[in-house]
Design brief:
By secondary structure, this protein is of the alpha/beta class. The chain has helices at about 15-25, 40-45, 60, 75-85, 105-120, 135-140, 155-160, 170-185, 200-205, 230, 250-265; strands at about 30-35, 50-55, 90-95, 125, 145-150, 190-195, 210-215, 225. It has eleven helices and eight strands. Bound molecules: 3-methyl-2-oxobutanoic acid. 3-methyl-2-oxobutanoic acid binds next to strand 6.
Length: about 300
């Protein structure tokens, strides 16, 4: 059931929110990754991830923005729809973007409903601790599973003065713990812990009955999440300390595209192999000059 990858003929069973919750204690650790489109979602689903998060990180990854603040609910719904079409097994989580839920619990329920109806997500994630427990409670009561997100909450980047590690010192650690407990008690089925010291994350993980999913929170969580472009080595520029690169696909993409550019310019692409049969029976197909150019295409 938890193998990484599935046989091409097997019809995978969807991972549900109650199953994710039940992994607390029983394991194995939950593997979550972000995706924002059909192609990436199909590949990571094939690789056996348990959850795909359509994160508001799409602001940075897809839109080239400096932070997540401008991302809209419609944009999350649009990308979620594409991801949901591809996720045969993985549970699809839609992120609630800035100002799609902060205004009131009623706004939160409406926005969560939109992500389920328009985005085909199976649960939603929102940032916030004690101050947002009522919002979580109301969404859960409306029948939508909620994943919490405490510690570093990127939607509060301006209030925090930057993307800074949270939960430091006794006061910081107590705040993260209180936030986590509030979201658990409000009925969330899982909780993201972002950018907090590993001992604080381990303490929170022991203190709550729902699985914690860490990003920059050390190995003591019940699962881990990474942004797909970090994991695959497609990000350029500064990368956070926790972003382990499992491949260098960015370099591979540049190298492959360079070869394509060279072959287009030299005429080596397309060759007869990539060309259709000629229309006329007397034509044997494109002929290639000594310089490698196709010379008789009509
Ligand atoms: O938006 C996102 O990708 C996230 C993860 C980093 C947890 O919230």
């Amino acid at each position: 059931m938890y193998s990484s990858g599935s046989s091409p003929t097997a019809i995978p069973k969807k991972v549900t929110a109650p199953e994710v919750r039940a992994r607390k204690g029983s394991g194995p650790s939950l593997a979550m990754v972000t995706a924002y489109d059909f192609t990436m979602a199909r590949l990571v689903d094939e690789a056996g991830v348990d959850l795909i998060l359509v994160g508001d990180s799409l602001g940075m990854v897809v839109q080239g923005l400096p932070n997540t603040m401008p991302v809209t609910l419609d944009e999350i719904a649009y990308h979620s729809r594409a991801v949901a079409r591809a996720a045969a097994r993985a549970h699809v989580v839609g992120d609630m973007p800035f100002m799609s839920y902060q205004v009131s619990p009623t706004q939160a329920v409406e926005s969560a409903g939109k992500l389920v109806k328009d985005g085909a997500v199976e649960s939603v994630k929102l940032e916030g601790g004690e101050d947002f427990a009522e919002h979580v409670w109301r969404i859960v009561r409306a029948g939508v599973p909620v994943m919490g997100h405490v510690g570093l909450m990127p939607q509060s980047v301006h209030a925090l003065g930057g993307f800074k590690v949270q939960g430091r010192g006794d006061q910081g650690a107590s705040k993260v713990l209180a936030d986590a407990k509030a979201i658990e008690e409000a009925g969330a089925y899982a909780l993201v812990l972002e950018a907090i010291p590993p001992d604080v994350a381990a303490e929170v993980t022991r203190a709550v009955s729902i699985p914690t999913i860490g990003i920059g929170a050390g190995p003591g969580c019940d699962g881990q999440v990474l942004v797909c472009t970090d994991l695959l080595g497609m990000s350029r520029g500064h990368a956070p300390k926790f972003a382990k690169r499992y491949a260098e696909l960015g370099d591979a993409i540049v190298a492959a595209t360079r070869r394509y550019v060279d072959e287009v310019r030299s005429g080596a692409f397309p060759s007869a192999e990539q060309s259709y049969k000629p229309n006329r029976a007397d034509e044997s197909g494109p002929r290639v000059s000594e310089q490698g150019r196709v010379v008789n295409l009509r």
